[in-house]
Every structure is written in C-alpha cells, then in structure tokens.
Amino acid sequence: MSDTEIHKGLAGVVVDYTAVSKVNPETNSLLYRGYPVQELAANCTFEEVAYLLWHGDLPDAAQLAAFHELERSQRGLDANVRRAIDDLPLAAHPMDVLRTAVSIIGANDPDASVATPESNLSKSIRLLAKIPAIVAYDQRRRRGQDLVAPRDDLGYSANFLNMTFGEVPSDVVVKAFDVSMILYAEHSFNASTFTARVVTSTLSDLYSAVVAGIGALKGPLHGGANEAVMHVFDEIGTADAADAWLDEALTEKRKIMGFGHRVYKNGDSRVPTMKAALDTLVEEFDAQDLLALYDALETAMEARKPIKPNLDYPSGPAYRLIGYDTEMFTPLFVASRVTGWTAHIMEQLASNSLIRPLSEYDGPAERHLPVRSL
Ligand code: SDX
C-alpha cells in the first residue's frame, strides 16, 4: 500500500472558499452571510432568508415587496409537470417525483443553459416558488385529494401548508414550519451542496445541478434522515421501549437516524431552535407521548454514545405533527435547501474551477493480453 494520504469522504478537507455560510463546530454556531441562524429564525421569514442567501444582504421593504411579487406570481403547478406527476406510480418515492418534476421544469425552460447571474437568479426564484406546489400536490394525490391552487395573499409557508392541507393552519404551525425552512436552507459544503457545485463546475446548467443535489440529499446519511427518524419512532412505538430498542440497534451496528454529524461533534447548532419550534407544536397538538419518546431516545443515546442529535431529529417529529406523510419529509428539506444550493451554484460560477480530485490506484499491476491468432 502506498504512503499517499487518502482523505476518505473528504473528511476535514477544505476545498474552496464560500461567503454563503460559516459552520463553526468550535463555537457550535452557524452564520448565513454573517447573521446567526438563530436570530434569522426568530426575526425573519424564510422569504427574507432566501433573499439574503442569494443577494448577500436582507431585503429592504421595497426589495421584499418586489421579491414577494416575483415569487408569488410563479407558484402554480404547470400542467405539463402535473401530467408527469400523474403518470408516476404512487409507489414512486416523493424524492423521485420531485427530482423528475424539476427536470421537466428545466427541460421546458428555453434559457436553461443561460448562466448569467440574472438568469440563474430567476431560475432560483422559479424553483423556490414551484417546489411547494409539487410537494403539496404529490402528498394530496397519494391521499386521493384534488390539487389546491396557490394563494398569492399568503406568505411562503402559509401558502405551502394551505396547498398541502386545504386550509391555513394556526400561526403556531405556520411559524414552526417557517423556522424549519430557515434552519434547513443552507449548511456550507454538505454532500448535496457540494454535489451541486461539482455539476456546476463543469458549466452544466442550474437545473442539472439541483436535480443532482436532490439525488444526493435523498440518502439516509444526509437529508433522508428526517424521514428515517420517524421510521425509528414508529419502530420503537412508546418511550418505555426506547432503551431496549437502542441496545438492540447498537448491537446490530445500526446508524441511529437523526444523530451524529460530520462537522458538528458537540451537537448541531440548529437543534435548540428547531426543538423549541417542536415544543410549540407538542403543546398545540397535545402530543406529550411523542415528546416523551423523543426525550427517551435522546437520553438513551446520551447514556450509550457521545453522539448528539442533528437537525433531522427534531424536524422529523415536527413535520409529523404538522401533518405531512413521512415520505414527504425530505422533499420539504429540498424546498428549503434549494435556496442554499442555488446560492452556491451562483457562487461557484462566479469564480469557477472544474472540480476533479485525484485517486490512488490500488488495482492489478499493468498486464497485457495474450497475442491472439487471427
Ligand atoms: C445532515 O453535512 C451536513 O451539513 C449535513 C446536514 C446539512 O444541513 O446539510 O447537516 C444534514 O445530513 C445531517 C446528518 C443526517 N444523517 C443522519 O442522521 C444519519 C445518521 N448519522 C450517521 O450516519 C453519521 O453521524 C453521519 C453520516 C451523519 C456522520 O458520520 P461521520 O462523521 O462520517 O462519522 P462516522 O460515520 O465515521 O462515525 C464515526 C463513529 C463510527 O463508530 P466506529 O465505526 O468508529 O466505532 O461514530 C459512529 C460510527 O459508527 N456513529 C454512529 C452514528 N454516527 C456516527 N453510530 C450510531 N449512530 C449514529 N448516528
């Protein structure tokens, strides 16, 4: 074996600069364009945070009004996208439905390959506006329910929830959902964002980079964990079964979904804010049993492994209480992270270099075919 140092999984490897966000495990903090994410969650809407990620500053009143108008005017589910979704089996995973729908939006955009900042910004807003309609319709069709049209008198989260459930829920639910969108929006060079940057580095188009990001986010080691957390909760059932379940799972060397993080080693900076949002939903829906299970599994894990919850741990139960089907949780992550992905796509293009790492060969030594008689 050669003495070349291999950085498996690129763990700990710094590959580029970014001005979009700063993940700081030492101080357990996360800044979006310099603002602590906790302050943004408490004082801003997801629309304002999307604007911040794309433009580098929060919008003033006039800029926000113009942004609202642009986003709200594009919320409808295009007929060709709806037909394509209807042609997909209900057994298709919602992440595959969403990936397909984004591909169709891209294939129908005559400017798909135009890579100017203005063109990519308008594609980004288009996806921000249209993904909720795709996710909401996909859940409703699985329940045999009709499409609910978007309303341009509602904010992003209230409209998303209204399209999903046919009514605007309480302010508590809308706020908790909006907080989750803000917390999921951006996280530097995570696997799906780096995937989007790799695709962008070849000068492929924004839609191709977003579709690739969706593919990467689907995995249970990454975005798919918020869905997997709820499958774990459903497997455990009640709080008093958490200890025994965890002992068996760890004996089987299973990765416990919603716990651990490649960068944060003393806890995910976003968890306290999302847990506080979950607590408001527990009170709103009187879901003490769910909270007891949440606490029991966290306590059981703490007693066995120094591995702390990540954002997916509180967000899964929150989406369950809000009423989303479990398989819809990661598409909700996409609805938010499309803002971070597209901010990084535009940043990558601004000072691009083809992303092409090296590998160390450890296959068969050079050998040759026997001479064949013709
Ligand atoms: C997200 O990168 C980002 O920023 C991602 C994200 C974002 O906003 O984009 O934050 C979103 O993806 C959060 C992570 C969601 N994934 C999960 O919840 C899945 C469960 N978590 C693990 O798969 C794991 O913690 C990772 C993949 C998230 C991180 O793993 P690392 O840093 O690569 O660490 P590792 O897998 O090398 O594990 C180190 C040790 C191992 O033990 P040993 O083999 O050395 O004895 O810790 C153990 C692991 O087995 N371990 C776990 C564990 N996580 C790590 N053991 C049980 N359960 C876990 N969850």
UniProtKB/TrEMBL annotation:
It holds the Pfam family Citrate_synt. InterPro entries: 2-MeCitrate/Citrate_synth_II, Citrate_synth-like_lrg_a-sub, Citrate_synth-like_sm_a-sub, Citrate_synthase, Citrate_synthase_AS, Citrate_synthase_bac-typ, Citrate_synthase_sf. It catalyses: oxaloacetate + acetyl-CoA + H2O = citrate + CoA + H(+). Keywords: Transferase, Tricarboxylic acid cycle. Pathway: Carbohydrate metabolism; tricarboxylic acid cycle. Belongs to the citrate synthase family. This is Citrate synthase. It comes from Frondihabitans sucicola.
